[in-house]
Fold:
Amino acid sequence: MGAKLRVVRRRIKSVQSTKKITRAMELIASSRIVKAQQRVEASRPYALQLTQAMEDVARQTGSVAHPLLEEREHSARVGVLVVTSDRGLAGSYNSNVLKVGEDLMKEVRSRGLEPVVYVAGKKGVGYFRFRGVPMRRSWQGFSEVPPYDKAEEIGTALIEDFAVHEINELHCAYTDFLSAFTLRATGKRFLPIAAHEVRGGGARGVHAEYLFEPGPAQILDHLLPQYLITKVYAALLESAASENAARRRAMKAATDNAEELIKILTRQANRARQDEITTEISEIVGGAEALSAAAEG
Structure:
């Protein structure tokens, strides 16, 4: 009986240690969600102003023509960028976005085309490497706090491959951060850039007239690559916020489960201790009765 009690107490200590770790990770993830949200919100005005600048330039040029807007009829290879995390312990976060990435690849194959895989995040790299899926490029080590220069590196590599016809389309699978409680793995087309994104979807009131130096076409040559890099950066920021939200949720569930398990183990320990005391009392009473009987005999 004593051995069983020691085992239960050892398990209680182990679960308590695990609970401390999961609780700490939950608090860290909670603090990072706020910062990640702030980075997402801070990037949106830049993206908005960049889009408006492209609309102004496109309106002055009359017709928009650029390699990044080119719809290629004879596509053979389609790029799929999958954004995952570098660390686990985030519930179904990675599995959801990897499923979207797999669905995109299946859709590409169903059109008779070849998917070209790009991966951001250690978990995605490990997933595709284990399955023997070749990766054109991969990046890792910055999923929780993605810097702009990494988005620029990824965006530049994608633009270069698109320019040399290594890929003729680009789709991105990432996790859209709607709120701390609502995360949605989604897939969107990044290349070629849809013409309506450049021209704008509606009136913005009275349009200002600009004199461009250099010409509008040269300015558009600079703005469109920046626009794609901004979209990649937004996907990385949304994914980072989603990763921290998913990790907080997973760690809270783990902490709650640990607390419940500690209660169950504590009851088992109390029951084992009670059984042990009862056995000791029975042995004492039995011994006393035996001594009493021996004295009377």
Q: What stands out?
A: The two ends are 34 Å apart (CA to CA).
